[in-house]
Task: structure prediction
Amino acid sequence: MTNQGGKPGRVALKIFLWGLAVYSVVGGAFAATSAASEFFASLQARLIKDGFDAETVHALYGQPGVGFEIRGVGMFFRHSEARLNYDQFLREQRIRMARQYMVEHSGALAVAEERYQVSREVITAIMLVETQLGTLVGNQTVFNILSTMAALDDHGVRKAFWKELPQERRLTRKAFEKKADRKSSWAYNELKALLRYGQAEALDPVAIRGSYAGAMGYCQFMPSNALRLGVDGNGDQRVDLFDHTDAIASVGNYLKHHGWKPGLTRKQQFKVILKYNYSKPYANTILEIAKQLKG
Result:
């Protein structure tokens, strides 16, 4: 049901839209039925063309729970950074939690501090804001999120997605198209990194849970960063970002890679933290938490 270019044809698109109406939703994603399979057909072809094993790709997209993620990716196209309340992380209760975390993981933090020259307070502050110290890692299937976003490269699929996107706080069509152009390419690269990361660490990529944008682990790395800058902190020969020691070491390595070193001014520290999350309120909050933790 695809045309010669590998894109979903009109019949496939009709099947997909019909599937949206009749298939049940599990965790916000439409299950990997014939409709969802058609939706990801051109994406699978791209992955195979780029060197991924065809049998493995088809097996991944045939797994239960793999499907088209409207809810999660829809949030990505409505989300506004200005709506996030970073002040919540400066409350006394959160600072107490962070101090307790520093006690419980003092060994891993000390090693990271020595090896990467990043203070334990800054590493802890990032862990606090990203996942509340590993307690809230996100409940989205990262594979579904990235696959759905990458599939928006197909304009027929993108049109169908737009029709199903909730209208509340929805971008204008022009803004949506512009963002979809940019993010579908980004997501495809992250999807490839996820598959490579899963292969390198003997992990099922479909089983990895994370944020609506595809970030994963206690430190919320994107797959490309997990592949490039993730660190085996506990010496078990694996990079597991759902392990506190590995996550702590990975944060230290990430910041060092982007220029963190002893003696930086606050302004210089601020610029490095923006490499972790390009949000000025975020960077200011990290530095303020670290300051309070030093007190």
The chain has two domains: 10-80+139-206, 84-138+213-294. The CA atoms of residues 217 and 241 lie 5 Å apart. The two ends are 64 Å apart (CA to CA).
